[in-house]
Amino acid sequence: MDFIQKDIQDYSARHTAAANDLLEKIDRETHVNVLRPRMLSGHVQGRILSMLSHMIRPHRILEIGTYTGYSALCMAEGLQGDGELITIDVNEELEPIVEGYFQVSPYADQLKYLIGNAMDLIPTIEKGFDLVFIDADKVNYLNYYELILPKMNAGGFIIADNILWSGKVTTTPKSNDKDTLALIEFNKKVHEDTRVENVLLAVRDGLMILRVL
Ligand SMILES: C[S@@+](CC[C@H](N)C(=O)[O-])C[C@H]1O[C@@H](n2cnc3c(N)ncnc32)[C@H](O)[C@@H]1O
Question: Which domain of life is it from (predicted)?
Answer without folding.
Answer: Bacteria
